[in-house]
Predict the 3D structure of the following.
Amino acid sequence: MSLILSRRDIEFLLFDWLGVDALSDHNLYETLDRDIYTGVLDLAERLAADVVAPVNKIADSSEPVMLPDGSVAMPAEIGAALEALKQSGLFSAAQPAEYGGMQLPFVVEKAAFAWIQAASPAVSGYVLLTMAAANLLVEHGTTEQIDDFALPLLAGETFGTMCLSEPHAGSSLGDVRTRAVPDGDHYRLFGNKMWISGGEHSLSSSITHLVLARPQDAPPGVKGLSLFIVPRDLMAADGTSTRNDVSLAGLNHKMGQRGTVNTLLNFGEGRHRPQGASGAIGYLVGAHGDGLKLMFTMMNEARIGVGTSAAAIGYTGYLHALDYARSRPQGRLASDRNPSSSQVPIIEHADVRRMLLIQKSFVEGGLALNLYCASLVDRIRVGSASQRADLGLLLDLLTPIAKSWPSQFCLEANSLAIQVHGGYGYTRDYNVEQFYRDNRLNPIHEGTHGIQALDLLGRKVSMAKGAAFDLLRAEIGSSCERAGQAAGELPELGEAVEAHLARFAEITARLIDIEDPDTRLADAALYLEAAGHLVIGWIWLDLLLACEGEHSDFHAGKRMAGRYFIRRELPKIDPLLDTLHAMDGLVREADPKWF
């Protein structure tokens, strides 16, 4: 059994639940079939096990070092693993053939990539950012920008970054100060960017930075931001390259995912002077003022990527804990009073099974949610105009949940994996302590829980006059209706999900009607957590419907985890909804001086 991910579960999610086979009925995917999909999964599983996973501890123990010349020293094994991933074609797998891809369904690509994320979050981080940068340019770039920048990204020749945050601004992007000064057919950028993953390395021939900056005379706030391509290296007509005015100011040393170099970058400080002048040469993408809107293409993909990574790291932690619990003898059952009898594997103890069951329900639910979101991308690609509009709204609504819920609760699964290991769990001799540190970054990556909560309650549930939320209610209601017509426990479980949906919808309507945003959003994080649990409860109900008529141990395990989540975890949103309903103002009334 693999300790990275469960191949059986991946195939269940893709083929038995999401029905990926049916995509071949559409022209876009008509040349593809299940054999191709399973071949891609085979490739990803082999790469994860044989190439990427062995690098994970090396990347953790030998983190990047900044050298006096401004370059970065990294373990050679990271570069070798990334070269193997480049040669595999996974960078461009979901792209059309004209861009070097195999036009793979997005959900299959994400399922395959989950193996790489579980094997090493640090190594996979470079690929995730590069694919997202390429996809942004394919969607919004000019033909020349696609040829010059997107295609090398998709080929793995160059790697990409996302340059949003600045030392003084953090998540407050409206306060971005980086300036863009026009200079002929390009711009020169001046400013500083912080927390830039993959910002400097020698793992690829160059680095393509996608940078939010403020052109001269642009208005304040996010409406004044534009998006620029800023290559680290500038190519001349004769094929030679010169360094752009982008320099490494320092490295951030993280508690986890240490092999993904994290940087502070200076643009236009004059250390490098392309074409004789200071300022990092950049090229405008799209129209002035559309920077944040365009960047959301990359940010939303990255958020789904973070959610999938969180679920994958939680999943591999669960599998390690399960393997340990099956092989570690300790103690005897409470009913066995004979001190001479043999010790039992700790999985025989009810409390250990409780911790494993929580982990299983969290990580399998979190992975399923993110693959569901990826499947919406494929349904958008093959759908009619009206279907694309509806599915796009549903995906927008689910994105903050798909990012934040696994980041919170699959991290909790990693904590429980340590607990299952007992004293060994927090030593470096076992992998689970690193899994926890690696996953702890994901509640912050691509927008904190608080940012996602403000997005969900402040914008998403009310967008298009509530149409997105209505679509989600309809999807959940459909699953509940099907459960009501099924056998066994499904009607009861469906009623539980439906009852919580009704109360959640009532609270949502009440919150939306509050005009003062400070009052409405004070407990937005609680709303996000409740929304996440409700959505995962629905996902589990739908998974249980896909198990109908199946009687293997695998399906019995699914039923056990789904019943557990709906019966024991879903009711935990009731106190959250009570608090949201009360609107007691407790948090807003806490004067900063009292802390």
About this structure: The chain has three domains: 7-158, 160-288, 448-584. The first strand starts at residue 65 and ends at 66.
